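#data-curation
PF: Archiving a pair of folding outputs for the training set. Convention for this channel: one message per protein, sequence first, structure tokens after, nothing in between. First:
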Amino acid sequence: MTLPELAEDLGYLGDVRLEWVGNTISGPQDIQSAATGQTDVGGAFNGAVIKLVAAGAPVKSVISYYGVDRDAYSGYYVLADSPIRGPRDLLGKKVAMNTLGAHAEALLDIYLQRGGLSAAEVAKVEPTVLPPVNTEQALRQRQIEVAVLGGVLRDKALAAGGIRPLFSDFDLLGAFNAGTFVMTDRFLKQNPETSRTFVTGVAKAIEWSRSTSRAEVIARSVEIVKRRARNEDPGALQFWKSFGVAAPGGRVADQDFQLWIDWLVSHGDIKAGQVRPGDLYSNAYNGFGGASAPAVSPSASRS
């Protein structure tokens, strides 16, 4: 269940309607689809947005939609009996994640660099792509040494026992906005009111989720999943705790990108000075108003 779906269900999107066109487990693929016009909006890790813009894609980040906090984070897990205890133990080991060049690989690199590994040593660690739903099983079958798990997949794996955390992105960086929805410059120019309605509606949904009890957010999410009738099991939603968005109303700021710009430069993916944070995003379509915005009623009616 996504924030736009929640916003629509709460009536925050007005006459704007969402059209589901499919699923992806890759943020870079998702925003590529938006950049090429296959979809009107896409979402990904901010580092992936930077790479897309650096490659010449005419897109703008318009709102943060996921982040990291004490309840919403990605953990790097090993088996309980694993000899891996620190960064240097990862040399030659496979670390499974949903996609390369994005959030999970960036945090892995930061962990290794802070652990004192040289660039040559970092290159000996093996980031490996696996679908998130298969990652826990691959770890338990010892096909990989480290599994990156987040959200309900993390909590279900922990509940089953037999694994322990090595580190998490919250351990490394604390709370932060991690990913944004993007739209093309063309779409924003041609559809300013639709864009504003969508972005502001998502902002209101973020704040509704903060001001509403966890039980009520979960119950509403379960209703949404059941009504969309895609033959899904809503049971996993019981593990939801937070969307992790750090900023009020999901508003975007320079610091949401600068860390990843520096990482991409050090990684050799972009050149120093090639991209500036202020060129990557716009809050012009977010009518929520940041910290001074009015409170959002938790009893909003459905559309």
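PF: Second:
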Amino acid sequence: MTLNEGYKSPWLNEELEILQDAVKKFYEREFVPHVEKWNDQGCVDRDAWLKAGEAGILCASIPEEYGGGGGTFAHEMVITQEQSRAGVGGFGNSVHSGIVAHYVKAYGTEEQKKKWLPKMASGELVGAIAMTEPGTGSDLQGVKTTAKKDGNQYVLNGQKTFITNGQNADLICVVAKTDPEAGAKGTSLIMVETDEVEGFRRGRNLKKLGQKAQDTSELFFDDVKVPLTNLLGEDEGKGFIQLMQQLPQERLIIAVQACCAMEKAVALTAEYTKDRKAFGKSILDFQNTQFKLAECKTEATIARVFVDDCAVKLLDGKLDATTAAMAKWWTTEKENEIVDTCLQFFGGYGYMMEYPIAQMYADARIQKIYGGANEIMKMLIARTL
């Protein structure tokens, strides 16, 4: 769903357009019919991951030698966009493929890559990353979860919350302190295979304002023992640096989702206001409607061009953390503003969850919080002034 007929993303080529069509059909056929059920039950069916794996939707940008699609971030963008356009908000593939798999690819040993990535690509393993704690959100240096050496094992203790894929995840990248006295330099990433450990518990599948089908959970680690070989990377204390290196891609994924939401909201509203009548004429005939939607279309187009430019930079290895932070905060702010403006034109129907605009309104709010709260994004940007 694009707002400008003549505009084509500079990173989009013929191969990606073929993928786009295939992914769109997959979501419409396999996922869309189940969205209402998944929303009601609070999570996506586990076999949906296996179907996505069979269709090549998982780990599209992971090398083929590790079971992935051998593509680039552009392939992930196509898949993310089509999921957003289809309205399948609960499927946590952006975390699984766009984040967790890339931590393993970037920092894992050859043995770790061969062990975990093929199963992530097939959907046999579902990935999650456990950063946030009850008392620690965007400030990752304040993490309290510990991973202490005990012979040839790490013993993990701590609690995590707001974890995407929390109920379905089999492979969790845990942010923990291997040296609690060393601050950021004492942070490491420890991989936990949930089926192979004792002391791991899943807490509540949290009831949220939006993204109802996403299993967002509390996780508990009580003397969870994993081999020392489950450390991600060769040395302890590199976790904070690893997180910072991967965050630009994570934040760009959020910006991509925001772009799609803006475009979809404007398109749905333009269509609805053409048909809805008031005082003897369509809502779109009123100047206020035209001006408001003109503003929304303009801002959505600016967001698309900016995010596409960021995508090109990321593909070239040139997207810096500051620009990614700009993209994340600005697009998510505009997403919330535009969806709110568009909902108003639906009148009372805009408040009904059977209308997509209402679901989009509820889903949009978290975009300003996760991936680093927008206030943190502004702090990061301000440091470059």
